[in-house]
Amino acid sequence: MALLLREEDVQTLLPISDAIEALERAFRAQAEGHATTVPRARVRWPRGALHVMAAGGPGIGYVGLKAYTTVGGQARFVVLLFDIESGALVALIEADMLGRLRTGAATGLATRYLARPDARIVGMYGTGRQAATQLMAVCAARAIEEVRVYSPTRERREAFAQRMAETLGIPVHVMDRPEAVAEGADILITITSAREPVLRGAWLRPGMHINAAGSNAWIRRELDEEAVVRADLIVIDARDQGKMEAGDFLEPLERGRLQWDRIHELKDVVAGRVQRTHPAQITLFKSLGIALEDVAVAALVYERARAQGMGESLRLVEAPLMD
Question: Which CATH superfamily, name and number, covers 2-99+291-314?
């Protein structure tokens, strides 16, 4: 029988540091040819869309998919996880929190490999639903001493700063100007729904690492053209998905200032094939959110739930009788 795991189960079973480790194993398996991920597909209608993405393989031990709808400004997420040996459905997981944790974990993993080891100050654009796990993951990857945040609404950024300062135990300062976020920062995070750039290349300085995690559509971008082309090393979680979704890259690609062969995949960074080579390099991780990340953390949540006797048993899909 399958396990039904709810949002509160995921939050209990998946610390952000463990989610980062799960993604590191998954990307290493992908680099070795033992895991596959399929780009997001979308079915659209006037009021909303259905989004479906699948991944898995022997390196993870499971295959699965995440499906979610976005209708009327509301999103609803679910992951189906199947055992790779038997093909049996083993888990049905509510996946809003799981998605936030895996998106943060991808940023944390990229930061682990690409940010300078001495990075201590984080600048952050965006204080919405995905922001907390982004910041938690970066703090798990580096010994962060100070955070600076900006979002357009003062009340929201002040509430976020207070909450994260209490959670992380470090100063989280509110900035009134977006350019002030970048001043003196070692790591920058963009996690917004912006359609026009929130981070400009003129604000960057040598040695910075940028995690651009908010945009996964051609009509949205968080970085201006100069911010992209100033990066010495550009990494994406999946190049094929990026060719359909990476709005941050559209303008420099169209102008011929960026080519896809300059953009490396995260699996190759984890495998040691690509790396920061100088402290002064500007590095950029473009996060789209891919199915491999969902399945990797879903597998960890399922295995922990089974070991701890958590979740609700469901009899959903039985194997058909064979003639």
Answer: ornithine cyclodeaminase, domain 1 (3.30.1780.10)
